[in-house]
């Protein structure tokens, strides 16, 4: 008979026991008093968001655009479900699968509160230079929004929005639209070219990462 609830510390204890190779999913799940499917999900959550995922219980809202981006990444073969969950800070594959199922059934995707990772945190004010650096870093690291948000102490949604604006409008899309920052609105051509050059270098790094990944994949397939 399974236990109803384990503390965060207990869950982490059993997960780390598994990661040290001290048992299989089934054997450690039995020790923990839970079914193996639940234990597998704990491990996925731990891998995606770290041990803090078991302590935080904030309910987050995801926009329709956010959901569609994650769905399209999967349907276009960009990544596996597990990799997409890690990339977008989702706590489980079930969450992503529900979105995919609704999308494939032509149901309307709506903004919804979820039990998502607290990677989606409250945003903060940023300067134009900061936004450029954040987008540059995100692109250079394979558009890992969650990693970039954590690194720069901004919200996931902010990173996602800024990268999207850059994709649509270039450097101009990262300006503060409220027009309160004079240096942003008066950026000269030389400054704009310098910023664009930084972004191009970041995109080249991203492409190189993709090439390296494909080479490794080919090597594994030849074995």
Automatic annotation (TrEMBL):
Pfam families: HTH_28. Transmembrane segments: none annotated. Residues 10-59, 67-105, 130-182 form the Insertion element IS150 protein InsJ-like helix-turn-helix domain. GO terms for molecular function: sequence-specific DNA binding. Gene3D superfamilies: Winged helix-like DNA-binding domain superfamily/Winged helix DNA-binding domain. Belongs to the IS150/IS1296 orfA family. This is Putative transposase OrfA. It comes from Selenomonas ruminantium subsp. lactilytica (strain NBRC 103574 / TAM6421).
């Amino acid at each position: 008979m399974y236990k109803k609830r384990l503390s965060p510390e207990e869950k982490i204890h059993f997960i780390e026991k598994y990661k040290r190779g001290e048992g299989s999913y089934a054997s450690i799940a039995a020790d923990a008093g839970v079914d193996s499917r639940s234990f597998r999900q704990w491990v996925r959550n731990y891998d995606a968001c770290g041990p803090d995922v078991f302590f935080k219980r904030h309910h987050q809202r995801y926009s329709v655009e956010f959901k569609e981006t994650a769905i399209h990444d999967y349907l276009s073969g960009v990544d596996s479900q597990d990799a997409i969950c890690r990339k977008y800070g989702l706590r489980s594959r079930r969450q992503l699968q529900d979105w995919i199922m609704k999308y494939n059934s032509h149901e309307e995707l709506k903004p919804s509160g979820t039990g998502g990772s607290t990677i989606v945190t409250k945003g903060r004010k940023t300067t134009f230079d900061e936004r450029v650096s954040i987008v540059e870093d995100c692109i250079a690291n394979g558009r890992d929004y969650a990693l970039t948000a954590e690194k720069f102490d901004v919200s996931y949604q902010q990173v996602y929005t800024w990268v999207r604006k850059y994709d649509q409008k270039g450097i101009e899309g990262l300006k503060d639209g409220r027009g309160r920052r004079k240096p942003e609105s008066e950026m000269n051509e030389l400054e704009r070219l310098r910023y664009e050059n930084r972004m191009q270098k970041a995109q080249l790094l991203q492409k190189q990462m993709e090439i390296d990944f494909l080479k490794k994949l080919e090597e594994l397939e030849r074995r």
